[in-house]
Amino acid sequence: MGAEQQISLAALERFCRAAFAAIGADKATADGATRAMLHGTRLGVDSHGVRLLPHYLKALEGGRLNRNPRMKQVGGFGAIEVWDADHAQGAVGTYHGMARAVTLAGQFGLGAVAIRNSSHFGPAGAYALAAAEAGYIGITFCNSDSFVRLHDGASRFHGTNPIAVSVPVAGQQPWLLDMATSAIPYNRVELYRSLGVELPEAVASDVTGRDTRDAHLADMLAPLGGMFGFKGAALAGVAEIFSAVLSGMKLSFDIDPMGGPDFATPRGMGAFVLALKPEAFLDRAAFDAGMTRYLDVLRGSALRENAPDGVSVMAPGIANGKSRRNVAKTA
C-alpha cells in the first residue's frame, strides 16, 4: 500500500466530471452523480463516496445506465407525481424527484414523488439534505438488490434499503438522518474488503447464515438491531413498500445484483421522495424555535457514566459544518 495522499475536493470533482464526459455521459448525469458522490466523500462516508465512480462508469459503458436519459412524468395527482428516470444513474432521477417534491410542497404544503426505472443512487441523505437546504423537511426511501437476511433468516431477502430524513435548523446545519436498515451498508463490506479490515461483530453472515467478521466470507448482512433485528427487518419493509411497491418497480429479491456480471441490462429500481413545508403546519418562527430548543437541550444533556473522554451528546447530521471535509485521502 502506498503512502497516504490528500486531494482537494475541487480537484476530485473536476476529475469525476471529466470521467463522465469522457465516457459520453450527458451533463445532467455528470452533475447528479458527482454531486451525490461528493456528498458522501465530504462527510467521510467513503463507502458511498467517490469510490463508486468506477462502478458507475462501468454501468454506463455496459449499457445498464443510460448516458443521455430523457426523464418524463408518467403519473400524478395533486401534490403527487410519478417520474420515469429512463434508466438514468440513480442520483439524476432522485435529485430531480426531490426538486419536484420541493416545488409541489411550496404549492400544496407537501410534495411526494415516486421515481421509476432508476438505479443505485448512493447516499440517501444527499436528497433529503437537498430539501432541508431549501427550507423543507426531506424524506427519502430506496430499495436495492437482496443482500440482507431477515431476523433469524438464513437467506438474502431485503436490500440495505436506506431511509433518510433531513430537517432545516435556523442558523445551523440541517438535522440529518441517513441510515441503512441493515446492520451496515453493503458498500461498507466492499470498503473493508479493499482495506483488509475485519467487520464488526454480528453485522454479516456467511452463505449458511452464520455470523462472520471476514469481509471476504460475508454473503449477506444482518438487519439493523442485533438480537432485536426484527425491528431493522420491518424498517427495511417500509423502505421496500414506499420505493418499490408504490413505484411499481422491482422488489429487492428481483433486482439484478449491483456487482454484475450483467452490466448491460437496466435494473428497474424505484425510489420515493417526500418534501414537507414547515409553514404548512405552524408559523415558521415557532418551528425554528422548536428545532433550536430541541437541539440545544439534546446537545446539553448529561453523558452516561464512563463515556469516552472528549465525547459529547450529538444530534444526527453535520455538527456545525465540522464534519465537512475539504480534502479526500487516498492510499
Automatic annotation (TrEMBL):
A Pfam family this protein belongs to? Ldh_2
Q: Which InterPro entries match?
A: Mal/L-sulf/L-lact_DH-like_ah (IPR043144), Mal/L-sulf/L-lact_DH-like_NADP (IPR043143), Mal/L-sulfo/L-lacto_DH-like_sf (IPR036111), Malate/L-lactate_DH-like (IPR003767)
Q: Which Gene3D superfamilies match?
A: 1.10.1530.10, Hypothetical oxidoreductase yiak, domain 2
Alphabetically sorted, this entry's keywords are: Oxidoreductase
So which domain of life are we looking at?
A: Bacteria
Please verify whether the record's keywords include Thylakoid.
no
To which protein family does this belong? Answer: Belongs to the LDH2/MDH2 oxidoreductase family.
Name it: Ldh family oxidoreductase
Name the source organism.
Paracoccus cavernae
Classification from the root reads: Bacteria, Pseudomonadati, Pseudomonadota, Alphaproteobacteria, Rhodobacterales
